[in-house]
Structure formats: C-alpha cells, structure tokens
Amino acid sequence: MRALQIFFFCLLCAALLFVFSIIDGVVKFAFSLGALYAGIQFFKRYETRGLRIAFVLTTILFYFIYTVFYALYLAMQQQAAV
Description:
Elements: H1 2-22, H2 28-45, H3 49-81
C-alpha cells in the first residue's frame, strides 16, 4: 500500500510540474504551488531518506515521460495538419 501511495504522489507531482512547464501566464504558478504542496505533504508522511530520494528521482522520471509523450503528441498533430 505504501508503494502505491508513493507512486501516486510521484505521478501527481510530475503531472503538476508538466502542466506548469507547458502553460503560459500567471495560472501556471498555481500548478507549481500544487506540486510544492504535494511534495511537502509527502515529506511530512515519509521521513526516511531512501523514500525521499526515490520520490524525487521517480518524479523526475515521470516528468520526462510526460514530456516525451507530449512531444510525440505534438509531432503527430503537426503531421496530421500537413
């Protein structure tokens, strides 16, 4: 159960950071604050160093996965328009 909670925290933070990176305007900072809040909540719940390192690394990995899929989506959209 704990691994599933860590997985969902990582997915949530990565998704919020991804949306922060693709949206323009002031609204994007709400997503940054959301990711910060979720990270703080994770660090309050899990105090061991190993889980925190795993959280940060997994969040970065999911962020890159989201970015790659979004880039592929944009490339397919551009090819369909041509």
